[in-house]
């Protein structure tokens, strides 16, 4: 009975920390994806002589012969908005944003 109580206390302490670590890692992975999207847009703009107002499509950035082989997905369940070359890409999850 004491062993079960100790395991319960340990689980009560460990589970919130596990959830916090999981959210933090999802946020960092999403920010890394956003940085990759930003870099891919810059490469696309330079290679195709585009200006800051041009918006690349998925076919311009993702593919076997493109900067990124396949479109990244937000680990937090959000979706990405690529936006114009001069703007930073965004995620629909509020905490996932480029600094």
Q: How does this model look, in words?
A:
The protein is mainly alpha-helical and 99 residues long. It has one domain. It has two helices and two strands, in the order ααββ. It has helices at residues 2-47, 58-61; strands spanning 80-81, 90-91.
Task: Give a concise summary.
With 99 residues, the protein is mainly alpha-helical. It contains 2 helices and 2 strands, in the order ααββ.
Layout of helices and strands:
Layout (H helix, E strand, L loop, with lengths): L1 H46 L10 H4 L18 E2 L8 E2 L8
Antiparallel strand pairs: 1-2
**Radius of gyration, taken over Cα atoms and rounded to an integer in Å:** 20 Å
Main β-sheet: number of strands, strand sense, barrel status? Answer: 2 strands, antiparallel
Lateral strand order in the biggest sheet: 1-2
Helix share bin: 40-55%
Estimate the global geometry from the Cα principal axes: elongated
Order of helices and strands: HHEE
Q: Work out the count of structural domains.
A: 1
Instruction: List segments where confidence is low: pLDDT < 50 over at least 5 consecutive residues.
Output: none
Instruction: Tell me the fraction of residues in β-strands, as a range.
Output: under 5%
Report how far the terminal alpha carbons are from each other. 50 Å
- Coarse structural class: mainly alpha
The number of helical segments is: 2
Tell me the total number of β-strands.
2
Overall pLDDT level: 94
């Amino acid at each position: 009975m004491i062993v079960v109580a100790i395991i319960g206390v340990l689980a009560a302490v460990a589970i919130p920390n596990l959830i916090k670590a999981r959210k933090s890692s999802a946020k960092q992975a999403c920010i890394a994806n956003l940085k990759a999207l930003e870099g891919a847009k810059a490469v696309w703009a330079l290679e195709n002589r585009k200006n800051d107002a041009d918006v690349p499509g998925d076919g311009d950035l993702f593919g076997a012969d493109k900067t990124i082989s396949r479109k990244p997905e937000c680990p937090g369940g959000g979706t990405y908005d690529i936006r114009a070359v001069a703007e930073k890409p965004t995620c629909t999850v509020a905490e996932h944003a480029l600094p």
